[in-house]
Amino acid sequence: MRGCLVTLATGLMALTALPASAQDPIRLGGEVQGRLQAGDAQLTSGEYVDVYVFEGRAGQQVTVRMSSSDVDSYVMIRGPSGFAEFNDDRDEGDVDSQLTVRLPASGQYRIQATTFAPGESGRYTLSVLEGVGPPISAQGGGRAQEGTANAGQLNGSDETISSGEYADSWSFTGTPGQTYVVRLNSAEFDPYLMVRGVGVQEDNDDDQTGRGSRNSRIQFVMPDTGEVSIITTSYEVGETGAYTLILEEAGGTTAIAATGGSIVRPGQAVTGRLDVGNDTLRSGEYMTVYTLHGQAGDHIEVTLRSDQFDPYLFVQGPGDFAVANDDDETGEDGVNSRLVLTLPATGEYQIVATSYQPGETGTYRLSVSSSDAGSVQTAVSPRAGNSFAGGVSLSGMLSGSDEQLTTGEYADRYVITGRRGERVALDLQSDAFDTYLMLRGPGDASADNDDGPDGTNSRIDMILPADGDYTVSVTSYGPGEVGPYSLTAGLSLGTPRQAGVRGGPRVFAIMVGVSDYGGYASDLAYTADDALKLAEALRREGVLNPASIVLTDADATVGGVRRAFAEVAAQAGPDDIFLFFFSGHGSQQSVAVSGNELDGLAETIVLRDGQITDAEMAELFASLDTRLSLIVLDSCFSGGFARNVVNRPGVIGLFSSEEDLTSQVAVKFQAGGYLSHFLRTGLTGEANYDGDDLITAGELTTYLRRKFASEVMDVQTQTMDGQRSYQHLVVERGGVQVDDVVIRIGRG
Q: What DSSP element (H or E) covers 316?
């Protein structure tokens, strides 16, 4: 837990990170046996701690290892100039701790031997070595082979990760800079996948390319070292069973074994049953998986029929190919499902037979046949080609010889190629009939429009969910209507509000982080780095304006923050976004009860030489004239700033904890706080859910809530008087709408 300050009317009281305790010397190359027990010194968060000291010299590399069969060990090193490093687990699935550091200065260093959770007691061994120490061996999995199915098994004899799930660790050596895809599939447990390397830290629960699929998938770029560790584990504690780990270069065609079904071929029909005992999707539907061997360019029709449940069908294949269907879009087959596909690559495809609702059971009939694609045309354009990016413009004619829907409308169909994240617009116009426009495609894409903004003409504006071919159907609102029409399709800038958002270095930011408080308060780990890392990430993304200011440690003073506001606010204009970010101590002060301070406590951020209250921060924000302003506070009690600062349109507040609760250090991410870490990863791409390079307020806040739900929901925290609770993100959007753009990334 990061230490927090309480400021009472009578003065300042700091809760130090460590109470006074005995310090035993330890020499380099030495080893000691110790015991953590009642009566030992304790951290303010309740963990017992023993302290050892040694003399180090600048530039020296030192490895500290703490091992125990009694406790989940946790080791910390502190030294001159505010130096601090922490380690919980030596490796994924290993409760021992190992920390290798290069000492920044000559002097005395303190090693704190403690535990991950309060109250743990037991024996341990602590050793201090010069150099990198013994290598960490992989647990269970071994070397992962590229381009093949690596078989594995989670069982009760495996190591466990810190949250209790069994895990195997695989290592992989690849080509630096190459993009790889790793998949974890199992019919016996809910897979969870992690990839770790230098600059690579990716987790995945459910593969989003398949509806509700419990299997996991991560795409990552191999770091310069060429080495990563792949952790295969489960979503829930105690899950066991066989699994398959597939690793390949992006766009590869490694076969994935079918689960519970068999191989099917064109011209074949099979009968099956969804029932209790089948594998299930993450959302609870029973399923059976069949394998189809296909060739690039094959035209395939797949149908799933049942009179006992509502069928749902999806197909996955090489290169992340994924399409799905609920009800046959022609309307000819009720709630039964039908897909007509052109296979994009040679390889194995998985056909998943499932239901629309969780828990539905019953028999079904799955049929696969070769399809004549004669009625599906390729849209052509004299200017470009058949892609949304190139633009499509064509004229056509609905006539009595066209394909006819079951409800009597004539229809022409065109295929246009698109890429995930493209925002596209399609316009259908006719003076002869009332137009109706439909789009279907990969990623379960589906959009219909009767009347656009221009009378009986039709318009679809949407973001494409996946790469692939999209079928556009031109038809009429009423049966039997005929006549000429024009269809145009191309890239769109989105809604008027979104189209007006300029790209490039539009983020005017003040980023503040304090680790070394110079005696004013207890020092913190990683909080100064939070500000530096955020600035670097936004700069690499091309969105940080050069007028932005970073203040850390000795520069992070009350006067420094006020001067930064005056300087940056004067340059940020109505087309820009302003960001104030802080990572460090938070505090509270006694004030009169009011509408903004219902508990009689004002919240503050603690700087190197003083504090800024929530009311004072509101005054600073009142000086801004920007398109959007964002306040992000990763500090104790920060939620109390919401009522004061988010008091006018165009302001978003993101706070790491509720106003009466402390915030924790995100040691597992080597960050001063969880909000700091996830803000950085979200703004640099992970919150770009639809791939359109516009990170909206809805996307960013959804991303942060999901990350807090998965990573922080069990993180304990407390009030200043010791009441225990859990850390929760506080989001206040004020008048900002969910589709308002926070930043445009990836292009100017």
A: strand 311-317
What does the alpha-carbon distance between residue 663 and residue 661 come to, in Å, rounded to a whole number?
7
Copy the structure tokens of residue 421.
């994240």
Which H helix or E strand runs over 378?
strand 376-378
C-alpha distances out from residue 435 to 425, 483, 486, 552, Å:
16, 10, 10, 60
pLDDT confidence of residue 420: 83
Q: Residue type at 213?
A: S
What's 233's DSSP letter? Answer: E
Which contiguous run of DSSP H or E holds residue 115?
strand 107-115
Tell me how far apart the alpha carbons of residues 36 and 33 are, in angstroms, rounded to a whole number: 10
Does residue 42 contact residue 19 with C-beta atoms inside 8 Å? yes
Q: Which of 267, 309, 268, 265 is nearest to 287 (CA)?
A: 309
| SS (HEC) of 149-176 | EEEEEECCCCEECCCCCEEEEEEEECCC
Enter the pTM of the model. Answer: 0.47
Tell me how far apart the alpha carbons of residues 34 and 294 are, in angstroms, rounded to a whole number: 63
Question: What is the rounded CA–CA span in Å between residue 397 and residue 666?
Answer: 62
Instruction: Give the three-state DSSP class for 123.
Output: strand
User: DSSP code of 683?
Assistant: I
Name the token pair of 107.
Answer: 């002097």
What pLDDT, on a 0 to 100 scale, did the predictor assign at position 19?
Answer: 34
CA separation for the pair 253, 147 (Å, rounded)? 8
Task: Give CA–CA dist 577/742, Å, rounded.
Answer: 7
- Tens of pLDDT along 58-98? 778 788 888 888 888 888 888 776 666 776 654 444 567 88
Ramachandran assignment for 208, one of left (phi > 0), alpha (psi -120 to 50 degrees), beta (any other)? alpha
Answer for the pair 343, 292: CB distance below 8 angstroms, yes or no.
no
User: What is the Cα–Cα distance from 525 to 665, expressed in whole angstroms?
Assistant: 8
pLDDT at 247 over 80: yes
For 711, list phi and psi in degrees, rounded to 5: -110, -20
Q: What is the Cα Rg of the chain in Å?
A: 29
Cα separation of 111 and 75, whole Å?
Answer: 7
In tens, the pLDDT along 382-435 reads 333 478 887 787 878 888 877 788 788 888 888 888 888 888 888 899 989 999
Q: How far apart are CA 99 and CA 90, in angstroms?
A: 7
Contact 443, 406 (CB under 8 A): no
Burial class (CB in 10 A: 0-12, 13-18, 19+), 271: exposed
Res 211: pLDDT: 42
Cα–Cα distance measured from residue 314 to residue 331, given in angstroms and rounded to the nearest whole number = 18
